[in-house]
Write a structure and sequence with these properties.
Layout lengths: L6 H5 L7 H10 L4 H5 L18 E5 L2 E4 L4 E4 L2 H4 L8 H11 L10 H13 L5 E5 L2 H16 L3 E5 L16 H4 L2 E3 L5 H10 L4 E6 L11 H11 L3 E5 L11 H6 L5 E4 L10 E5 L1 H4 L15 H16 L2 H23 L3 E4 L6 E4 L4 H17 L2 E2 L14 H21 L1
Parallel strand pairs: 3-13, 5-6, 5-7, 7-8, 8-9
Antiparallel strand pairs: 1-2, 2-3, 4-10, 9-10, 11-12
């Protein structure tokens, strides 16, 4: 992909031309309900400098080109589902070969067996595995399985797990479902103890993302598992974002804790739709009781994509590469903030970094973050203010350095505005 985001663009006043995207979005909002209701492409939106891109022309490697011809280094990466880079040729070849044998055949593809064996061999807690389509599906199935095994209904949780009734407070979710979910504070065992004390004998499971912006304190995840088991509940890790990104064994391998059940998705197939539910044999043996009938769970193209992706992650040690690149980005952002005298610091794990603004007032912190994402967007770097960003193996040190240079100018703008 010819890169039209040239270094001279970084020096100019940011301006984004998204006329075609805006016109098509206006049309789409007349017929697509979710887009009609959204305030912006990324839910929370940007503080606008000429709008934001919506429609893609081409995605390749670490780059996106929108239909207006703007090119971006992509730090959203299919909201974390792309780990190698868009359109990886080896993954594409595996998918095309699988499609050549039929789409969603009635019988199983041998790739199903191969992928199950690969995940059981890589994930520390996986004695048995089964496949679904989305991360939300996998976490939802994990919670239902925990409730079936324990005979209890209440759930303690941390993080974002999708849109299903058990974890959502949206309109349309019955009050009875909402009353069974209790959020605890991260890195705070006392908040979990208090919830167990408030609902004795009622907690089916603790389900949590292993981290989001802050990493777990030393021993925290192990202590969480112990506390959960002391209360005769199951410990579930939502590894939809972390799995196959920070390590081949996920966060559980990186931090040395084996959950009872795990949910995986996103990066396990480099953008193709597949997720996995994995766990201890005696727990997973109860899975037939759940009625998990998934029409598309046997799709050989997604299985082939996942096998190819995992093979490349292992062969090229992609998690280590993401860690190196992420550290370079985080150090660069910290130096840029210091130079601009903007109260901000990089947070998160290296493969999933973020920039936290630390102005005294919440309104200033919020505006600074939106100004940052919008300024970076206008300079050719696609980031979101909604949650942490993602790196992929197709990124280079030059990509990171260009991002840091754009951040220097964007942070200087923020210093003048706030």
């Amino acid at each position: 992909m010819a890169d039209r985001v040239r270094p001279d663009r970084e020096d100019r006043e940011p301006k984004l031309d998204v006329g075609r995207s805006s016109a098509l979005l206006k049309r789409l909002r007349q017929s697509e309900a979710l887009l009609a209701a959204r305030p912006g492409m990324y839910f929370t939106g940007y503080e606008r400098i000429g709008g934001n891109p919506v429609f893609i022309d081409r995605a390749e490697g670490a780059r996106l080109r929108d239909i207006d011809g703007n090119i971006y280094t992509d730090y959203l990466l299919g909201f974390g589902s792309v780990v190698l880079g868009h359109g990886h040729p080896e993954v594409n070849r595996a998918v095309m070969a699988a499609l050549g044998r039929g789409v969603n055949p009635t019988l199983l593809d041998v790739a199903h067996l191969d992928l199950a064996e690969r995940i059981v061999g890589l994930v520390p807690s996986a004695d048995l595995v089964t496949f679904l389509k989305t991360g939300s599906d996998a976490v939802d199935a994990a919670v239902r399985l925990a409730r079936a095994v324990t005979g209890r209904s209440h759930v303690l949780h941390y993080g974002h797990h999708g849109w299903h009734d058990w974890c959502s407070a949206s309109p349309g979710v019955p009050d009875a479902a909402r009353s069974l979910l209790h959020r605890f504070a991260y890195n705070d065992l006392d908040s979990v103890r208090a919830l167990f004390d408030a609902h004795p004998g009622e907690i089916a499971c603790v389900v949590m993302m292993p981290y989001e912006l802050e990493p777990p304190q030393p021993g925290y995840l192990t202590a969480m598992k112990q506390l959960t088991h002391q209360n005769r509940a199951l410990f579930i890790l939502d590894e939809v974002r972390s799995g196959f990104r920070i390590g081949l064994g996920g966060a559980q391998g990186a931090f040395g804790v084996a959950p009872d059940i795990s949910a995986f998705g996103k990066a396990m197939a480099n953008g193709h739709a597949i997720s996995a539910l994995a766990g201890r044999r005696e727990i997973m043996a109860r899975i037939l009781e759940l009625g998990l009938t998934v029409t598309y769970f046997r799709s050989p193209d997604a299985m082939a994509a996942s096998l190819a992706t995992i093979g490349i992650l292992e062969r090229e040690d992609v998690p280590a590469r993401l860690k190196r690149l992420g550290r370079r980005l985080m150090d660069g952002l910290d130096q840029a903030a210091l130079k601009a005298r903007v109260p901000a610091r990089s947070v998160g794990l290296e493969a999933t970094p973020f920039l936290r603004f630390e102005h005294e007032r919440e309104a200033e912190r919020d505006r600074a973050l939106r100004l940052f994402c919008n300024g970076m967007l206008a300079r050719g770097h696609l980031m979101t203010p909604a949650h942490h960003w993602f790196l992929c193996a197709a990124m280079t040190e030059d990509d990171i350095d260009r991002t840091v240079r754009a951040a220097e100018r964007t942070l200087a703008d923020i210093a003048a505005a706030i």
